[in-house]
Amino acid sequence: MPAVYEPVPLPPLKDLTDDNITENTIIVNNQSSSPRLRYLFARLVTHLHDFARETRLSSEEWDAAIQFLTATGQICTDTRQEFILLSDVLGLSCLVDVMNHPKPAGATNGTVLGPFHTHDALEYEQGESICSEGKGEPCLVRITVKDTQGRPVVGVTVDIWETDDTGHYDTQYADRAGPDCRGVLVSDAEGVIVFKAIRPVPYPIPHDGPVGGLLEKLGRHPYRPSHMHFKFDKPGYDELVTSLYIRGDPYETTDAVFGVKSSLILDLAKIEDAAVAKEHGLSTDDWLLEYNFVLVTDEEAKELKVKNAEKALKKLGVTATVVDGLPIDALD
Amino acid sequence: MPAVYEPVPLPPLKDLTDDNITENTIIVNNQSSSPRLRYLFARLVTHLHDFARETRLSSEEWDAAIQFLTATGQICTDTRQEFILLSDVLGLSCLVDVMNHPKPAGATNGTVLGPFHTHDALEYEQGESICSEGKGEPCLVRITVKDTQGRPVVGVTVDIWETDDTGHYDTQYADRAGPDCRGVLVSDAEGVIVFKAIRPVPYPIPHDGPVGGLLEKLGRHPYRPSHMHFKFDKPGYDELVTSLYIRGDPYETTDAVFGVKSSLILDLAKIEDAAVAKEHGLSTDDWLLEYNFVLVTDEEAKELKVKNAEKALKKLGVTATVVDGLPIDALD
Questions:
Q1: A and B: number of Cβ contacts within 8 A
Q2: How far apart (Å, rounded) are the C-alpha atoms in residues A253 and B243?
Q3: Are B295 and B234 in contact (CB under 8 A)?
Q4: Looking at the partner chain, which of B44, B53, B265 has a beta carbon nearest the beta carbon of A316?
Q5: Lowest model confidence (mean pLDDT) among A267-276, B75-84, B285-294, B316-325
Q6: For A185, left (φ over 0), alpha (ψ -120 to 50), or beta?
Q7: B3 domain-assigned
């Protein structure tokens, strides 16, 4: 398959049947000048049609799907992303994250971004609170950021977000005045970040919309175990999107969005140390969350991603040309 | 797989990887009390995940897909259905129609409904015009409706819709006052329907939205060959959704929505017969469209649908239980 665009001779698109529609749709889409787009749409059309063929999808079911997708798009706003939620509950977000951000042994696992990250979180100094007063049980957070060689990573931008103690993100309030229970901090010379937040609580994903209706039909609950989101960014390092989970949560083993990993579950402690409590204006009985994050470099991530892709594609029997870990053949 | 709902023992959903996410998502969805829904979602998740795995879908591509689907939902209104358009250009609508409305030899083929059918078309008497003045070149339409035994089908409700001569349906005008270039008639004792309309013209599907953007990226044109839509309804007969196409149209072999079938292409003639022209207040030089439609009964359609389903599923190697032509096993 040449990488340069060459006009595709089209067959006459008449008398399309359930047997020839897939092949013909792929040929028509093969006019794209992008070999990657050609490959994506060849596989998309194949799977979409095979799904309909294998299920003998009825007209009523097709119509229900059209209505569902339409409603899912229509409920989206600047602060609500129902399609990400759909991707999350179908396990797609988990899969895409694992493939795109592979972790060598010892590195911190990633997990789903979810639909609640915003770009307007305020920057905080070390020791400050990312939550306004009265949002929940105070929790001192003390984390370190290191590389796979155990060296501190200095100057990492860390984006943190969580719900208040009613289980709602700031963006879920119609009268949101500004960001709350979210913030951005930068790691110090020892790769340390310290800030005040609140103890995470379990909560249901927004389930008053199409995705909530789907979960109900599927007999599934909409809950996520208590967690705090983290996103780490520094040039030269693979972006780490992850969360920390509190051990013993009732939804620890049945997360509605498939986000839990054992290595991200921790035991929440009490501060106990009076000097530490005093330094942060907290009580010894307040919560303490400690965790050591390990980032991978762009090089480490890319190398592993290409290796994993080649291994997986070989296992799947995909014979397409692979460039930088991405298959690009249109017709296989 | 029992048809009665039984609680599913869930595995702990922790440490999900690209290898085990599919199996686990299917088990969780398997809590539904509907065996058909369980089967649909088992196949949906399998294909969705296989698509991502085979393409090594990148985070950027996933994000582009989320944005595309959101925009597709958001542009939908009471009179614009962008998801049907998406289904049309990906060949899915064609496939679903063929499977759900199979035709024995001699019966009129169906084709895509498209997004422009409305439920507010007015009823007309035989001989009336479904188009207001000045909408295009006058065309007398004379059709018959028969069953597969050649007997006239009396009292069929026929819904007809087409664009004006600028290639726009009434619903595409912001100032639409009411239905135009669409109408409903009922077949007479001989199964005949006669009405006045206009000569169909080719037109592009709405391509100012996400689907138009997609076609451009795929190197595809958005045109449909000139056609007139028909929908036939009568209790006891399988609904026929179809269109008639004018031979020689520049887009006859490259319909953007895969709707053309050779048996639905006809030669448009001139009226010529002065008596006929006079009877309908037209000129002998005006257009004449004639076609003989053949409907199938519900029984004929259902029998063929089940037979086709069993044949196709056997060919695909699907071992699920099949009820009325629909597979219902959840785990295969």
A1: 262
A2: 53
A3: yes
A4: B53
A5: B316-325
A6: beta
A7: no
* Residue the block writes with tokens 């959840």: B330
Taking CB atoms and an 8 Å cutoff, what residues of chain B touch A14?
A: 252-253, 260-262, 265
Residue A67 within a domain: no
- CA-based Rg of chain B, rounded to a whole angstrom? 23
* Distances A195 to A182, A199, A245, A273, A275 between C-alpha atoms, Å: 11, 13, 17, 16, 16
pLDDT of residue A63 exceeding 70: yes
CA distances from B68 to A122, A127, A176, B72, B125 (A): 29, 41, 27, 6, 44
In the block, tokens 């000569």 appear at B199
Side chain identity at residue B187, one-letter code: S
The DSSP-derived string for B102-165 is: ---TTSPPP----S---S-PPB--TT-BSS-TTSSSEEEEEEEEEETTS-B-TT-EEEEE---T
How much is the pLDDT for A153?
A: 98
Q: Does position B33 have pLDDT exceeding 60, yes or no? A: yes
Kindly state whether residue A331 falls inside one of the protein's structural domains: no
Residue A138 Cα, gap to closest chain B Cα (Å)? 27
The string of pLDDT tens digits covering residues B161-210 is: 999 999 999 999 999 999 999 999 999 999 999 999 999 999 999 999 99
pLDDT in tens, A271-294: 999 999 999 999 999 999 999 999
B197, B140: one domain: yes
B109 & B226 share domain: yes
Q: Which two tokens stand for residue B210?
A: 């996400």
User: Is residue A264 included in any domain, yes or no?
Assistant: yes
pLDDT digits (tens, 9 = 90+) for A153-209: 999 999 999 999 999 999 999 999 999 999 999 999 999 999 999 999 999 999 999
CA dihedral (B303, B307, B308, B311) in degrees, to 10, reads: 180
Residue A139's φ and ψ, nearest 5 degrees, are -145, 120
Helix intervals (H) in chain B: 21-29, 35-55, 59-74, 82-89, 92-100, 210-217, 274-279, 298-316
Q: Same domain, yes or no, for B269 and B320?
A: no
Instruction: State whether residue A44 sits within 8 Å of chain B by CB.
Output: yes
Return d(Cα B245, Cα B265) in angstroms, integer. Answer: 4
**Nearest-angstrom CA–CA distance, B92 and A39:** 18
B126 and B226 belong to one structural domain: yes
Query: Model confidence over A105-121: pLDDT tens digits?
Result: 999 999 999 889 999 99
Q: Please name the residues in contact with A214: beta carbons below 8 A apart, sequence gap of 6 or more.
A: A68, A86, A89
pLDDT attached to residue A331: 47
* Domain housing B276: 82-96+104-296
Q: How far apart are CA B282 and CA B271, in angstroms?
A: 9
CB within 8 Å of chain A, chain B residues 239-258: 252-255, 258
CATH number of residue A252's parent domain: 2.60.130.10
Number of domains in chain A: 1
What is the bridge-based pairing of β-strands B138-147 and B192-198? antiparallel
Q: Does the distance separating the beta carbons of A95 and B49 come in below 8 Å?
A: yes
- Cβ density class B245-256: b for 16+ within 10 Å, e for less: bbeebebbebbb
Neighboring chain B residues of A74 at a CB cutoff of 8 Å: 73-74, 76
pLDDT exceeds 60 at position A5 = no
Q: How many CB atoms lie within 10 A of CB A119?
A: 7
